[in-house]
Design brief:
Lipocalin; 9 strands; mainly beta
Length: 157
């Protein structure tokens, strides 16, 4: 009887420990991220490390629901410390209801203003968070260069 109870206990423990994670994609990416590099994708190795001209940039993601987060992109100063807001916005950008999608669990996509599957544009900035849940790329198209998307690489604190 002791062996049966022991086997049943081990089976129960094993089934609980092998259970897939109950953490929703929107919960797993919640946190504060710090800017590390500007134009990480399109500069072909010539990215610019933050701080730039003393300016830092913080990305804050807060869980709202299973498929929604609140996002704030916060510059360390709101004055024109950087030319024309190129490397950083000149004010805090707030997206209270950003849509989250994690189609293949290798990355999580946050659509700040557009719908899933849409391309990055001046009206549809996006955040891509990689499977490590610590690296994020903010992809946007500055008004100064509407033909060229830019990116900022963030690391979770």
């Amino acid at each position: 009887m002791k062996n049966v109870l022991l086997c049943a206990s081990l089976l129960l423990i094993g089934s609980v420990s092998c259970k897939p994670s109950d953490v929703e994609p929107a919960q797993s990416i919640e946190g504060t991220y710090q800017a590390k590099d500007y134009d990480h994708f399109s500069s072909f190795g010539n990215s610019i490390a933050y701080p730039i001209n003393g300016q830092e940039l913080t990305l804050q993601i807060k869980y709202v629901s299973a498929d929604t987060v609140s996002v704030q992109i916060v510059p360390s100063a709101t004055t024109n410390a950087l030319p024309n807001g190129v490397y950083s916005p000149t004010q805090t950008l707030s997206y209270p209801k950003a849509y989250v999608e994690s189609p293949n669990h290798t990355a999580t996509y946050i659509y700040l203003m557009g719908k899933s599957g849409t391309t990055v544009s001046t009206t549809n900035p996006q955040i891509w968070i990689y499977s490590d849940k610590h690296t994020a790329d903010y992809l946007f198209t500055p008004a100064q260069t509407p033909s060229f998307s830019k990116s900022i690489r963030f690391q979770k604190n």
